[in-house]
Design a protein that fits this description.
This protein is α+β, with helices and mostly antiparallel strands. Helix content is 27%, strand content 34%. Strand 9 and strand 10 form a beta hairpin.
Length: 199
């Protein structure tokens, strides 16, 4: 008697299918995720980012590398993402090491952004103290004048990051708080191992 056929574990494909299902009901939030980072002392911080691409190669987001999250990723290059789609009562948590995206990919994405966002990337010293709103408006004006009549290049301090998933947990809300939780973790050979967790 032959062994039963077992479907391969494919958490990335499951994530992409869930995200696609969420998009019609939550078009603005389907790619939004909470990004958690920590400093060398283990003190965490979290914020919402837009994950611009996701797949087997990793989960990609962009930011000012001199921001708080950029500085924390420099000293502690491990992070977590949490997607939540309330219309489906679904959540996906992803953890893993983070690396810089290649310059060519960062250049290409920056070039696709609206010009106002490009100018803003140069003008904002993200996470640094700002004396007033007027100071920011002044910086924007100076950047606009600097690049008047030409394409705005990507700032050297701005670029993409790629989170390489090592741990993915799928959460599905159920009645009486008896939620479904499926955890996938990569083993030493890079294969995924599945575990069902208590709610």
């Amino acid at each position: 008697m032959s062994a039963p056929h077992v479907e391969p574990v494919a958490p990335i494909a499951q994530f992409l299918a869930l995200q696609a299902a969420a998009a019609p009901g939550e078009p603005e939030q389907a790619t939004a995720a909470t990004l958690a980072t920590a400093d060398l002392e283990g003190r965490p911080s979290a914020r919402i980012v837009l994950v611009k691409s996701a797949g087997e190669a990793g989960f990609v987001f962009f930011t000012n590398r001199e921001s708080r999250k950029g500085r924390e990723l420099e000293v502690n290059p491990w992070a977590a993402l949490c997607f939540f789609w309330p219309s489906m009562t679904r959540q996906v948590r992803i953890e893993g090491p983070v690396e810089w995206l290649e310059d060519e990919a960062s250049d290409a994405y920056f070039a696709s952004r609206p010009r106002g966002s490009q100018v803003g990337a140069w003008a904002s010293r993200q996470s640094a103290a700002l004396p007033s709103r007027e100071a920011l408006v002044g910086r924007v004006a100076r950047v606009e004048a600097r690049f008047a009549g030409q394409a705005v290049p990507r700032p050297p301090f701005w670029g993409g990051y790629r989170l390489l998933a090592q741990r993915i947990e799928f959460w599905h809300g159920r009645d009486s708080r008896l939620h479904d939780r499926l955890l996938y973790e990569r083993d030493g050979g890079g294969e995924w191992r599945q575990t069902r967790l208590s709610p």
